[in-house]
Fold:
Amino acid sequence: MDKQVPAEETYDNGGAIAIKGYNFQHAIASLIIILNYKKDDFCIYFETKDDVEVSLENKHIFIQVKGQKLSINDLTKPEKNNNKSILLKNISKNSSKKARYKVVALDFAEKDKKELSINQESCLFGEINCYSEEQKQIIIEKLLQQGMTEAEIKEKLSSSYIYFSPFVNNAECAYTYLLGCMNQNEINVDSNRGQAVLNELLKMITQKAEKVINNEQEKEIKKLESRELRKLFKSSECFNNRVKLANELKNADILNLKDYFKIKKELLDVDIKHRALKNEIENTGVIDFIETDKNEITAIHELYREIAKIKPQHNKALLYALSIDLYIDKVISEVEDESNDN
Amino acid sequence: MIIKKLIIADYKDKEANVFDFESTANIIIADGNTQGKSCLLKSLFYALGMGIKNFKDTWHIENKMLKIFYEHNSQEGTIIRCGDKFWIGNQQKFLDSKEYAKWLLETLGINILLPIRQNEEKRTIRPSAILLPFYVDQDTSWSKTIYKDVVNELGMYASNAIPKNIFECVFNISSDEIIEKEEEKIRLNSEKTKLSIQKNSLQELKDSFIKNPNGINLNENDALEDIKKYLIYAKNINSKISEKQAKIYTKEVDLDSYRLELRELKELLEKTDSAYKGIEKKCSFCGSELTTEQSLRRLKLDNNKFEIGLLQNERAKKIELLEGELQTLLEEKLFLEKDYSEILKISEKKYGDYTLPEYIEDKAKKLTKDNYYEIEDKLSLDITHKEDEIKFIEKRIRELKKTQKEYQESISSDFEELKVSFKISFPDVNLDNREFLDFKQINNSGATKNEEFFILYMIYINLLIKHSIIEVPLGFDSPIKDELDGKNIPKFYEIIEKIILASDKQSFVVMLKDKLQYLKNKNYSYTYLKKPILDKFMFNELKDEFSVMTSI
Structure:
């Protein structure tokens, strides 16, 4: 990664790419998001009743995440501080029929792993492992000692699965895998921008996970929904698109080479130096009449003409940069609207 | 100039006549007054170009064309006058009054130019001025003094010019040429002085100018070959250096602009970073926490930081590349400059015992020396020429002065003799105070006045006959009235005959028939006039003489 962008060795890039504070649990949450964000009812919570909670396809999934290689024994062994095993903590949540219980581990003891069977219809991961009857029996025995009734255990075990992380427990492997996964799931990772969106995703997960709540109502703040995620991923694509749009304007002979280089810089300055100007233009409502389902270049050129009427004193490059930025904002905002319509 | 014939035609009344004249004395005669005698004499001199003041009211000169047939220096010619136009037969062209005056001077072989009243520097000539000494008019020549106010057109000239300057010219005692030559002498002298000053200045600078050459000899062909070779080489290198310099300049400009951009990007990155930090926890724009807006903003800034980094990287690479190119160019240029300074060492190369600069300096010394002597020689030669011209002109001035003095003395002495001779005949007229070429007013009155006029005219006519350098017929018309001058009449005609009629010059004298008795010799040419002097029958016969005028 570093070798691809050698500039960072020399220049302070503000850590845009370097993802700090690696957390296996958050990496797994990211994986879940990447795999499922497109589903309309997808909704994810962090550090609530369990490490991760997902609401999807009328199911409510409680997920325990463990960054170690586990065995059936590890799953059922009570922990010293509270006398509760990993699995018990996982399945002791909600008892509705919609509930599902999943443990995500780094790996499983070879002997135990051999006994697992694969269920290929997992709504969350595509495929997931189910415990064998013998393993279930061992589990029941163990958990009975931890204060749960047999019937309860049996019922919950029927909805309990184990999933193994596709990446090993270190940052480089995790992020490489996740970026690949993003690419497969139509999240734009061109020109290393995937790092930025992954970074932001992890930042949101971390912040939401760290947020301490006191009641059920406050739980909402720890939630991420499909529409938010789609918007996030779409915006990454859009930001990546900015230079591409400028380039197309140049190719369409609307911009000369000098303006093109200027625009590239102005685009990066819109939210710093030109924030007030942008707000002012936004408030005139010119953007409302621009249609985003047509040719992008035509739309941007039209927007430029309107803006040039309002602000004729500014140079072409800046006004085009503002047009592109405003256009992209509109495209992103319409992602949300689509979801609302749905 | 001898007038052989005069034709007068009145093209309004369709009348004409022709008058033939002899080359000696011609007497215009009539039985009584008002027959047209004076009119014919006036017309004759009018035809010659005289600005006659007063024709009789019945004689409409404005309707008349006059043609003179003359002979001059054995050449015949015609002059037609009609108003202010003159037709010169020999030249087959029309002249205006000024051009005619010029022609007349040329024909007569004299140069007269008179100073005009307003500006004496300016000189012109009118036909009347040339003819003035030779014409005495019945009406206008006898009022204040001789030859004054005779014609109209001489009022423009300075008062002492008329008639004194004219007579000086006609007697060839004019100082005009002397003055002209004196002026030329002054001009030549000043030119000579100028040349002498130049020569002196040159000589004063001689020592600082001239350095004696050592006479260095050097194989010029070898040197020239070398110079040619080196020049081509130097030109080549020079153009290469310029090329490099242009490239260096372009690169430097680009480099500056990239460096500036890089600084701007660094600043932008710092600002973006600080904006990012501002919304890392809680959105500084909207105050929201853990919202999509905050997240999007963060993502955008993060993206921006990344892209700034890309741009920085791009620029840094470009700068690095440019710096490398610039360094190469500078080294190449330095190399070329070294080459160039090598070429300059040609000046140290020896051809035989000397270097090229030494040889060139020596050549220059020689050229300067040669040049100096050439200029000095030329100045000396010019000065000699001027001196010769001055000597020549001084000689001419001396000659002129001598001739003029001789003429002056000769004519003056004749003038004095004539005065003496007239004093015997006219004791009442006192000419003691009248000097030669003194045209002061005649103060006498009555008969004595007429006598004085008459005597003076006769004296000058006599002088003209004897000394005039031009050949112009004499015209004389007197106002002599019997009742006024009764006792002296025979004496007048005796003198007229003696001075005018007896001379071999052509003359036109107006007389009444009854005065012929006073002439001793009757063998003159007579033109008898009887009113009317023009004839309708003659018009048809003579009109063709003026065909050149009517055809226009």
About this structure: The first helix of chain B runs from residue 37 to 48.
